[in-house]
Amino acid sequence: MDTSLEYYFDFLSQPSRALYILLKASETKFEPKTINLLGGENIQEDYKQINRFQKVPAIIDREHDQPLHLAESIAILRYLAAKNYISDEFYPCDFHQRARIDEFLSWQHNGIRTSCSLYFRFLWVQEKVFGSPASEAKVAKYRKLMEIDLESMENLWLKDSDFLTGSKLTAADVFGACEIEQIRCCGYEIKNKYPKVFAWIERVRKGLHPYFNEAHQVIYTYEKDYKSKL
Questions:
Q1: Which residues does the UniProt record annotate as the domain GST C-terminal (predicted)?
Q2: What is the pLDDT of residues 48-59, one digit of tens each?
């Protein structure tokens, strides 16, 4: 592929999915480099040369003589937007619009991202990777933390608008929706308890067709596997 941009990711990683969707929806050419987290590829010495933190996502931009290695999803988002690799519709140049997106991205880092990740990791990763069931007490604890943030999504972020920062779909929606979609692996249903959140995710899915579903196929596969064991 004729491109200077290499993208390292695993679809099990929420920010990996979000950036993949944004790149695809922006019609940006990039060389996909999948990293198998469950197989431990991220902790191999070769990958350490790509990303010193040994996480995903990561990029290498080889446009210049000195290639840029960059980690951390929000830093990557801002860099890609600055280089017009991410469409302005998702991360606008307008200061006010961008500030609203950044406001959500800052909130979600210690909000919905943290709580959904803890719930997902403790339930799904605990059983899938370590082979031991989570204790009911801890499941209840992490579910409660997650539901506090889902309430904020329902009653604050989506109180009066179709999308998180207004009437248009932005990078904030992509990152947020990818985070919540992940808990389907654990059999958690949001449709009845959080109808605004559910309807919003469906709008995001429709607005990013077919890339949203493409990036989440691994999640839907594990969801089916989880439900088949109930």
A1: 94-228
A2: 999 999 999 999
